[in-house]
Structures are given as C-alpha cells and as structure tokens.
Amino acid sequence: MRPVRIGDRVIGPGHATFVVGEIGINHNGDLELAKKLIGAAAASGCDAVKFQKRTIEAVYAPEELARPRESPFGATNGDLKRGLEFGHSEYAEIDRLCRSLGIIWFASCWDEASVDFIEAFGPPCYKIASACLTNDDLLRYHRKKNRPIILSTGMSSLEQIDHALAVLGSQDLVLLHCTSTYPSKNQELNLKVIPRMIERFDVPVGYSGHEVGLYTTLAAVVLGACVVERHLTLDRAMWGSDQAASVEPQGMTRLVRDIRAVETAMGDGVKRVYESEVPVMRKLRRVGI
User: Fold this and answer.
1) Residue 198's CATH number
2) Rounded-to-integer distance, Cα 156 and Cα 153, Å
3) How many domains does the chain have?
4) Which DSSP string do the residues of the chain spell out, in sequence order?
5) Does some domain include residue 100?
6) How far is 148 from 123, CA to CA, in rounded Å?
7) Domain presence at residue 13
8) Are 131 and 125 in contact (CB under 8 A)?
9) Does 289 reside within a domain?
10) Is position 277 within any domain?
C-alpha cells in the first residue's frame, strides 16, 4: 500500500492519524462563524478543516430549489442552499486564516464548476462526498486536477466502490468508510468493514463518522483507520441540519488527544519484556517459573 501525501502530512499505515474537522455547512453562511470553527479546529489539534462547495443551479433541479422550506434565508429550499454558499472573498479569507494557523483546508465539490472554483486556491487534495461516488464524470473531472483524492463511501456497496476505483485509479487515493445518516445509529456503523476495505482495495482507508459520541471513532482508529473526519460545531443546539451529528470544540480536543494516546498504546506488535517490568518480575515471579 502506497501512503498518500496531503500537504506536509503523510497518510497511511505507520503514520499519525490525519484528523479532519468537517466544517461543511455548519458555518450557516456566516464567515465569522466559519473563522471561529477554523480556530477551534486548530486549537483542538486537527490536521485539517473541510468545507463543502456547490454551484446551486448545477446541483439542484429548479423544482427542488422552489420547494417550500423555512430557514433564516427565506421560504424556499433555494433560499437556504444559496444562503449557505461562500464566494471567492469568503474563501480567500478562509485561505489566509488557515495559512496563518498552519492548518490544511480543502473542500468537497459537488459539481465541475465548484472543482474549478476551489482549484484556484491550490488545495492540497479534494474530498468527494458519498453522494457523488457514482458520478463518473465528476470523478474523472477531479482526477484531471492531479491532486490527491479522499473519497467517502457512504450509501455505497463494495461493487460500487470497485467501479469508482476503476474510474479514479488507486494512486493518491484515500477511502473513507462512512454511514450517511445524521446522526448515525451505533448498530449501523459497521466498523468491521474498515479492515475488509483495507484488504480489498489496498489503499489507505479512514473513517467519516456522524454518530453521537467519540468512543466509536477511537475504535475505528484501532481497526486501522488512518484518517478520521468528524463534523465540528460550536454548539450542537445551533440551527442547521448537521449540527446534531457534530462534535463541539471540547469534544474534538478530547478526540484528538485520545487518538494520539491510542496510537502510542498500539505499539509495534512485537512481544517484549520492558525494562520497567524487570523489577516487578524479580519481585513476584518464583525462581524457575
């Protein structure tokens, strides 16, 4: 398995878990809130933050945009979707802040125009959302940019993932096991798929979690996930569709701390007697046993 380099981080077995704070649309269209989330991610020890970028008219049909939906932005689904999108000036500010804090940022792009939009910022990689895994044209368009790709696999069968890899190739590719419900039920996380995916696809495999709580994400790391992505919010009670499936700053700090502790505790798999055990052995073990 070849490791994948994203910025100055290396992703793969034997390397530190790459932790992504998924801001997504939790900024609620507010640049100042986005900046606070970036600061919280950096302070917690996240390696990266991720946003979502859509060209609204390309992603959604007119009838979907016209559908009634109450939100702070208006009375239709289109009002909501447009209100949540950042333009060039907002992303330029995001880019400046992330550079100043030394944290990587990238985005999941839901259409070709959004890929071109984010490409102008020279991202270290692209994320492809689970919803786009079967969009062959969009997969090919991402690959034309010659950047590493992180592909989420929620709502997808192994055969559909096989097909996506046939389109994308396996070079500079990371797969994320994912269950696309918000929040996800523990009985539907199916974390044992992670080692199966590692064996089947021979690429770095991570975990994108939407569950409530942190311990299941730590279990994913133990099972071999080399990337962890969790949604980040300042307050789970805030307005927004993803907030309830997100982690607050103090939780993200604990998660990163515990991931690093688990990495240390995993060791190298070689059974040995530690020097610290020798005095205990001399005290407790009978001669000849």
Assistant:
1) 3.20.20.70
2) 6
3) 1
4) ---EEETTEEESTTS--EEEEEEETTTTT-HHHHHHHHHHHHHHT-SEEEEEE--HHHHS-HHHHHSEEEETTEEEHHHHHHHT---HHHHHHHHHHHHHHT-EEEEEESSHHHHHHHHTT--S-EEE-GGGTT-HHHHHHHHTT---EEEE-TT--HHHHHHHHHHH-STTEEEEEE--SSSBPGGGT-TTHHHHHHHHH-S-EEEEE-BSSSHHHHHHHHTT-SEEEEEB-S-TTSSSTTGGGSB-HHHHHHHHHHHHHHHHHH--S-----GGGHHHHHHHSPTT-
5) yes
6) 10
7) yes
8) no
9) no
10) yes
How much is the pTM?
Answer: 0.95
Tell me, what amino acid is at 221?
Answer: V
Measured between alpha carbons, how far is 140 from 120 in angstroms, rounded to an integer? 18
For 21-25, 160-164, 211-215, 240-244, which range has the lowest pLDDT when averaged over its residues? Answer: 240-244
Note the Cα 280 to chain centre separation in Å: 44
Cα separation, 270 vs 249, in Å, equals 36
* pLDDT tens-digit map of 189-215: 999 999 999 999 999 999 999 999 999
Report residue 156 as tokens: 């997808």
Residues 6+ apart with CB under 8 A from 204: 1, 3, 4, 11, 12, 13, 173, 174, 175, 226, 227
pLDDT digits (tens, 9 = 90+) for 238-278: 999 899 999 999 999 999 999 999 999 999 999 999 999 99
Query: Tokens 């984010």 correspond to what residue?
Result: 118
CB 119 within 8 A of CB 145: yes
Query: What are the residues whose beta carbons fall under 8 Å from the beta carbon of 184, sequence distance 6 or more?
Result: 209, 210, 211, 245
> Which structural domain range is residue 279 located in?
4-284
Angle between helices 136-143 and 112-119 (to 10 degrees): 20
Residue 112 CA to residue 109 CA, distance in Å, equals: 8
- Residue 244 contacts residue 252 (beta carbons within 8 Å): no
Contact present, 222 and 266 (Cβ < 8 Å): yes
